[in-house]
């Protein structure tokens, strides 16, 4: 890149992105439409947009990974809860039947 290109990029970098976008689209930087400088500005803007999109996608992926981890943890907790419920039902059944078995054993003729 030439010094002029570096200066143009430095001017763009000094502006907030939306201000730079407006300046590029309205050719307020002294660049004629489709001139090498205008193409450089558009290329810079595309690179900034691509970087922002990549950051959003990475954030979205991070959220998805976290949601997947949370759902796996919830699945493990649900399986444990189901096992505990089955054990509780078995114990309740045994507790209900045991007194009946004991009473039958005590009342049987000898």
From TrEMBL:
Q: Which domain of life is it from?
A: Bacteria
Enumerate the UniProt keywords alphabetically. Membrane, Transmembrane, Transmembrane helix
Q: Does the keyword Transmembrane apply?
A: yes
Annotated membrane-spanning segments are 83-105
Protein name according to UniProt: Transmembrane protein
Q: Tell me the organism's taxonomic lineage.
A: Bacteria, Pseudomonadati, Pseudomonadota, Betaproteobacteria, Candidatus Accumulibacter
């Amino acid at each position: 890149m030439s010094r002029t290109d570096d200066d143009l990029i430095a001017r763009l970098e000094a502006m907030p992105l939306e201000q730079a976008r407006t300046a590029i689209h309205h050719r307020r930087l002294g660049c004629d439409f489709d001139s090498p400088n205008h193409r450089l500005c558009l290329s810079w803007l595309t690179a900034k947009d691509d970087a922002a999109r990549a950051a959003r996608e990475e954030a979205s992926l991070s959220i998805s990974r976290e949601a997947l981890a949370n759902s796996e943890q919830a699945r493990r907790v649900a399986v444990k809860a189901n096992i505990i419920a089955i054990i509780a039902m078995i114990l309740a059944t045994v507790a209900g039947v045991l007194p009946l078995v004991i009473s039958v054993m005590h009342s049987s003729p000898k």
